[in-house]
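Continuing the batch. This is chain 6 of the set; chains 1 through 5 are on the previous pages. Same settings as before, nothing changed between runs. Recording input and output for traceability.
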Amino acid sequence: MLTIKDARILAEQIKEKSPKVNSVELFGSVLRNGQGHDVDFILVVDDELSRQFWLDMPNFRVTGGRRWLMFRRVIKKLLPWLMEAFDHKSKQARQLRASRLVGINLAELSKQYKPDASIDVLLMPHHWQSQIHKITSDRNIAMFFQRIADSSVKLL
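Output for chain 6:
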């Protein structure tokens, strides 16, 4: 399990190793519960890098709206291995794209920190919270981003 302290350390390492990362924000279970199976980061980068991240990832989707979110949280809590099986491929793709764009291997960085550590990451432009409509026109993704915007905390 990873804690907020772990998230801060990983955020510092990311910021230290990549001048392309302007700031790091935390969202998700570690922020909400104080611990989680992975850390969910928003890496704030310049507009062009963020645009490239989202252009490279046309298959990003959020399904089911609010009902699915509640169901997902229950499954994640009771059957984390099941959620990991569903999420692993897309999480790995996001991590690989982000790693290439910011110039550091995020999977390696997390494993060097703790063998069971995992980072899930999204690249967003400056002031992304007020620009969600520019990032996506998909209603479910926009709602997902808005929930993140409402709860995320800037670590660095």
